[in-house]
Amino acid sequence: EVQLLESGGGLVQPGGSLRLSCAASAFTFSSYAMSWVRQAPGKGLEWVSTISGSGAGTYYAGSVKGRFTISRDNSKNTLYLQMSSLRAEDTALFYCAKGIGAADLSNFDYWGQGTLVTVSS
Amino acid sequence: QSVLTQPPSVSAAPGQKVTISCFGSSSNIGNNYVSWYQQLPGTAPKLLIYDNNKRPSGIPDRFSGSKSGTSATLGITGLQTGDEADYYCGTWDSSLSAVVFGGGTKLTVL
């Protein structure tokens, strides 16, 4: 069964950095685009970033462009999100999500349980 | 303010049918596929519909999707109390070069 296990969340001060990881299993990781989607407390879903299966293509929401970097290590079946210059409005549950295809940017067929990022002084 | 517009809430009785609308524009729904997600309380979202009207394996045919112009609709028939959840539409926006979601619709099964 496909599993996505996020880690790396926690409490960080404004302006700080954090790296999230998502360990994937039970599918050919390099064959699928992977994404990060976040959900602020009590709010709706907000797409953050997507990376193609090969890693050659990366896409970012305007709200995080220049501050967040998505990457993947296909040899380790792991997705990453490096976050810097964090702001209070970045506080959210961050989900790792699997795309339906290698270049599928907007269909997410499996989701992890999320890792909570809290930005506060 | 979400790029895609959904009603904040809908309700219907058990066994009945409900539809949830999602309104966008030519840069998103009008020229791209739409997906729908169900988020039960305290859980991660689950894909219900992709490519406008396709159901992933394991999703019952009580759930259906359609698209017309710049709007999309999720239909749920034979409502069950277990269908109470938040429902989100999503698609690619070609102008923003971004995935966009609706604000979500809370379904109450009375």
Textual characterization of the structure:
The complex is a heterodimer of chains A (121) and B (110). Chain A has 121 residues and is mainly β. Chain A has no helices and 11 strands. Chain A has strands spanning 3-7, 10-12, 18-25, 34-39, 45-51, 58-60, 68-73, 78-83, 92-99, 108-111, 115-119. In chain A, the strands form 2 sheets. In chain A, strands 2, 4, 5, 6, 9, 10 and 11 form a 7-stranded mixed beta sheet that branches. In chain A, strands 1-3-8-7 form a 4-stranded antiparallel beta sheet, with no helix packed on it. In chain A, a hairpin with a 5-residue loop joins β4 and β5 (45-51). Chain A is globular. Chain A starts with a strand and ends with a strand. Chain B is mainly beta and 110 residues long. Chain B starts with 8 loop residues before the first strand and ends with a strand. In chain B, strands 1, 3, 4, 7, 8 and 9 form a 6-stranded mixed beta sheet that branches. A 3-stranded antiparallel beta sheet of chain B has the order 2-6-5, with no helix packed on it. Chain B contains no helices and 9 strands. Classes of the chains: A mainly beta (121), B mainly beta (110).
pLDDT < 50 runs, ≥5 residues of chain B: none
- Mean pLDDT value of chain B: 96
Mean pLDDT of chain A: 96
Helix content range of chain B: under 10%
Helix content of chain A: under 10%
How many extended strands of chain B? 9
**How big is the Rg of chain A?**
13 Å
Which structural class matches the secondary elements of chain B? mainly beta
H/E series of chain A, N to C? EEEEEEEEEEE
Largest interface: A-B, 24 and 27 residues
Distance between the termini of chain B: 28 Å
Provide the succession of SSEs of chain B.
EEEEEEEEE
Counting copies of identical and different chains, the oligomeric state is: heterodimer
Strand content of chain A: over 45%
Distance between the termini of chain A: 40 Å
Strand content of chain B: over 45%
Ranges of chain A where pLDDT stays below 50 over 5 or more residues in a row are none
